[in-house]
Specification:
Strand content: 15-25%
Distance between the termini: 12 Å
Helix content: 25-40%
CATH superfamily of the domain at 3-39 and 60-72 and 200-249 and 357-404: FAD/NAD(P)-binding domain
Largest sheet: 7 strands, mixed
């Protein structure tokens, strides 16, 4: 039976192993002692702390994720986000404001949208996010909305990140409004979802289903001519190889997550949370209102302050005490929270978020052209969201399965 060797047991590798095991011999190798990659959940003192992604959307690529959830039989663990989470906020010019038509009108952004359909498509093969939004909507939209959105997803710099690779759907349509209308035509949004005991539920269920194919605490030292040399001294032959580990050529952004719990209801404006465009805070990227988002997961008020990213790379060398001080200061200034938290937990996600620079697609094309029956998946290639990673694995598994027929 043909063998597929998969390197890395994050959500991409686990999903690929699960999808392929019915079609071929699969060996999934992970150098650490645990699976799941950045999807880790920590429960302390009644507060649930996500150390990575905190949910998925059920629309678009989320359909593959929901199909996987049902296939694993863990649909009874699903929880939907609070309807209040549809409300998003932005901290700009010293004010916390709801992202709404009135906000866009006040900032003079609605007028620019009216002309977007008539703007010409770019002839460049790629451009920065800042360039794309400035060209289609004006500099103000780029610096406020595009920056905030990019901060929330990539914790990166809109002047260096690739529009084509970071937002491929919008790049292909060359229109934000067309993209929005197309989404509405397809049926609108399905609520954000997670699991009762956190996002780790998904990789744990996958691990249980592929445990006979899983080898932990083992590293692939090298591979060539369809043979891989392992750290345990063994050599493994394979027909296909799927490498989900980070690509060295792709830079990464680091963020610290400061989890704060409060005895009282300190959130005056319930919602998903708020994001902070560059220039409005030198350290903080945004705040997630966890107890509003998924109230089932926390007994009392819980917030997560995100610090670092491209605007504050020094986060990796900053003490926990200083990070907590930065977080509390931001809550006081931006949310008028003076109360001392009853729970504090900080976690550094070093080199966690790949940064797709302009021209990133060329790098991926070169990798794909260089190797036969070698595939490179994961967050270093095309998308950092859980849905995107599972969808990648699903597409490739179907391709390999078809070839093996």
């Amino acid at each position: 039976m043909p063998r597929v060797l998969i390197i890395g047991a994050g959500i991409t590798g686990l999903s690929a192993a699960y999808f392929l095991k019915k079609h071929c011999d699969v060996l999934l190798i992970e150098k650490s002692g645990k699976t799941g990659g950045w999807i880790q959940t920590d429960v302390r003192g009644g507060f649930l702390c996500e150390q990575g992604p905190r949910g998925c959307r059920g629309v678009g690529q989320g359909e593959a994720t929901l199909n996987l959830v049902h296939s694993l039989g863990i649909q009874d663990q699903l929880i939907e986000a609070n309807p209040l989470a549809k409300k998003r906020f932005i901290w700009t010019d010293g004010r916390l404001e709801a992202l709404s038509p009135s906000f866009l009108f006040k900032k003079g952004l609605i007028r620019e949208c009216l002309f977007e359909f008539f703007r010409r498509k770019s002839q460049e093969e790629d451009e920065s996010i800042a360039s794309f939004f400035s060209r289609r909507f004006g500099v103000k939209t780029a610096e406020i909305l595009a920056d905030a959105i990019t901060t929330g997803i990539y914790a990166g710099d809109i002047h260096t990140l690739s529009m084509r690779s970071c937002f491929p759907g919008l790049w292909e349509m060359e229109s934000i409004l067309r993209g929005y209308l197309f989404k509405r035509k397809k049926g609108g949004s399905i609520p954000l979802f997670s699991f009762k005991e956190g996002m780790v539920t998904l990789p744990l269920a996958l691990e249980k289903n592929v445990q006979d194919h899983l080898l932990l605490r083992t590293e692939v030292l090298s591979y060539k001519n369809n043979k891989a040399r392992l750290s345990n001294g063994k050599e493994v032959a394979y027909d296909y190889l799927i490498d989900t580990t980070p690509l060295k050529e792709v830079s990464k952004s680091s963020i610290a997550l400061i989890h704060l719990g409060f005895d009282n209801d300190t959130i005056k404006n319930p919602g998903f949370g708020h994001l902070i465009p560059t220039g409005n805070d030198p350290h903080v990227l945004g705040v997630v209102y966890d107890s509003c988002l998924f109230p089932q997961q926390n007994k009392q008020t819980k917030l997560t302050v995100m610090v670092g990213g491209a605007r504050f790379p020094e986060v990796v060398n900053t003490s926990k005490e200083r990070l907590i001080e930065i977080a509390l200061s931001a809550l006081k200034r931006q949310m008028d929270i003076d109360e001392r938290p009853s729970f504090v937990h900080s976690h550094l996600c070093k080199d966690a978020i790949p940064q797709y620079s302009v021209g990133h697609h060329r790098l991926i094309e070169e990798y794909e052209a260089k190797w036969k029956n070698h595939f490179f998946l994961g967050s270093s290639t095309e998308g950092v969201a859980v849905n995107c990673l599972i969808s990648q694995a699903d597409r490739l598994a179907k391709k390999i399965a078809l070839e093996l027929q």
